[in-house]
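Comment thread on ticket #2218

A.B. wrote:
> Attaching the input chain for the structure job we discussed in standup.
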Amino acid sequence: MNGYRIYGIGIMVCLILASGQWGFSQSLKPIFLSEDGKYYLKATCLAQLWGRYVSLNPGSTISGYQKQDVWDLAIRRYRLQLYGPVAERVFFYSQLGENNFSTLSDRKLGFFVHDLTGEYEFVQKKLSLGAGLNGWVGMSRFSAPAAGAIMGIDAPLYLQTTSDVTDQFLRRMSVYAKGNLGSLEYRLALAKPFAIQKSAFFAPIRLESATHSHRPAAFQWNGYFAWQFRDHESNLLPYKPGSYLGHKNVINLGAGFVYQPDAMWYLSGPGEDTLTHDLLAISAEFFADVPVGEQGAAFHAFVNYSYMDYGPRYLRNLALLNPANGTILPELINGSGNGYPAFGTGQVLYAQLGFKTRDGLWTGSGMMPYVALQCSDYRAVDDPMLFWDLGCNFFLKDHAAKFTLALQNRPLVFVDGTARGRRNSLILQYNILIQ
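C.D. wrote:
> Ran it. Output below, let me know if you need it in another format.
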């Protein structure tokens, strides 16, 4: 299927759903593989469409022309899933799609395999083993977020510790174990990282600041554990919802880790020896998503503390769907467009709060105003870094069709280690989920 046909299908789905014709069930019938219906394959489809205004970082250029701000349209995510029990104790999961397609993207590229996994259940609900390309990763529930059910405009992406550096948008080639032991949900995975040389973040020179080593990678250990005080969440798939919108009563305490020996390297001084450093990321978190009353209202809270050690002076930007492709201001660490240092060696405290109104208030399933804050204390930067995200979800039909309007505010960080000034982005998303 060529790129134009893929985007055409996505646009048609958007137009159909936006028309408000909710008479159909919005579900795709499974393909039954046995007469009794016990074995089947289920399909889902997700599209996230963005329109936004971005106040660009100082010095940003677009195709060589300096700009201060920009309006643009983009596809944040497009997903096709196919999964289900296909034989006794055997589970199959695959996901295709693309991320971050904009007017600056390479055309007719980017539609790729996100997941391809086979799994066998050895002990019912308690132990399943699987292998393949998958998102069974540490260190947090939102290291592998359910894209179609994110609470706000996007997940806290810094929790995807090596996203698209030595993994494929958080997915890794791995073997994993998962299950539930009473109220304890667990996942453990042994992953083989991808070669850094194939990443857009590959830097051919060695620096005094830690970067990802060019040597063949050692295996990476991942783990995540959650104690579930009330309703138990599904662990059929690795991806965790941001909010259940009052349909479940969930209160969890979680903790996790990512560890890879000799993952990083750096120079001990100008022209001196190359030293290696382990990658270690650990986190502890609280998640609550509880109904309030009996009319669909719900309260949401998530707090995460993370310690991340990528090695001395490590710092990496996040420039999500970057609307610029150049800069004339090298003294700005942020780089071009909407970039800011989101990953680094140090500590991060992240929190998000949201409240879903009763069903039928303004929109079919109500609204959900929210606020999120990432506070990062990275060793390579003198000042604490604050990233704000304020917004509101407008649910036409739960997560199946929703608009999200968000205002994001990011710091400007300079090579002297100080944060001076801030910039904003205003984003409108239309989320369409058919399952």
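A.B. wrote:
> Thanks. Noting for the ticket: The chain has a mean pLDDT of 92.
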